[in-house]
Write a structure and sequence with these properties.
This protein is mainly α. It has 14 helices and no strands. α4 packs parallel to α6, α8 packs antiparallel against α9 and α9 runs antiparallel to α10.
């Protein structure tokens, strides 16, 4: 029995040895490393081909934009983002798509869609805040849809950062355009409190004084206008503040005080014809008042 088992084992080993020494066997095993290498190279090539297609779309879109074919450029930007949403260029493609739709195709709702999609899908992108800004500007300046603009500007303000002061100014301006003067005043006051040295402070101060005058708080409005002489003596809004002060004095029937302020504006007020007309108007009222 043991001899039979031994013979069987020796026969199997001999068959295995012969198979390993066969030409086909050697070819197969010799080719395996090459096949593995080819598969690896093919996979890497396919990866780079797939990853590079987004850059090809982007480059083609940029080229079409340069030659002025904005519809084709927008199609390629859109195609890039849809087919390669994880591309490092996807957020920029959406931003460029929004710009083309806004500035060249005048497709404002579609431009807004591109900008809002960017902010939604790529909230951490450095372009997200700029996209919101673009969408808000379209609502406000092109579509005159102040309530929707207000929502987006408020969202920009809530994000904080360098654009917060500008966003709060726009929030106040939207309320003003909606004739909600009380809320506009609150927003301007908050802006001046939180960002007293922002580039738009002089304008915000002037707008706040105008609102106070519209609300009938003339004394406070005059004080605000007068403050601008000290805070921003060279600002164009300070010149406008002097003109507004003259208007309040004229309404109060302080005609000589109004005339004095208007005369001081000669040579500095940007609209000389309007200034001359107001001066003549006040002088006429003074003469009529003197006559009787």
């Amino acid at each position: 029995m043991e001899i039979r088992k031994l013979k069987k084992k020796l026969l199997q080993e001999e068959r295995t040895r012969r198979r390993k020494n066969s030409k086909a066997y050697r070819l197969i095993w010799g080719a395996l490393p090459i096949l593995a290498l080819l598969l690896l190279v093919g996979g890497v090539w396919e990866f780079y081909q797939r990853e590079g297609r987004d850059l090809k779309y982007y480059a083609r879109a940029e080229a079409q934009k340069i030659v002025g074919d904005h519809r084709e450029a927008s199609r390629l930007y859109k195609k890039l983002q849809r087919r390669h949403p994880d591309s490092p260029k996807a957020d920029d493609a959406l931003y460029q798509l929004g710009l083309i739709r806004r500035l060249h195709l005048k497709s404002y709702p579609e431009a807004i869609l591109a900008f809002l999609l960017l902010e939604k899908d790529y909230p951490d992108s450095p372009l997200a805040a700029k996209a919101l800004q673009q969408a808000a500007e379209i609502y406000k300046n092109q579509l005159l849809d102040y309530p929707r603009a207000l929502v987006i500007y408020q969202k920009l303000f809530d994000r904080g950062g360098n654009e917060a002061a500008t966003a709060q100014y726009q929030v106040a301006d939207c309320y003003f355009r909606l004739n909600n003067f009380e809320q506009a005043r609150i927003e301007f006051e908050s802006l001046l409190k939180n960002y007293p040295h922002s580039p738009g402070s002089a304008e915000a101060h002037y707008r706040l004084a105008v609102i106070l005058a519209l609300e009938g708080q003339e004394k406070m409005a005059m004080e605000r206008f007068a403050e601008m002489e000290k805070l921003w003596p060279e600002s164009s809004y300070t010149i406008e503040a002097r003109f507004a002060r003259a208007g309040i004095l004229e309404d109060r029937d302080d005609l000589r005080g109004a005339l004095k302020l208007l005369e001081e504006l000669r040579g500095s007020y940007p609209n000389g014809d309007i200034l001359k007309q107001r001066i003549n108007q006040v002088k006429t009222r003074i003469r009529k008042k003197a006559q009787g």
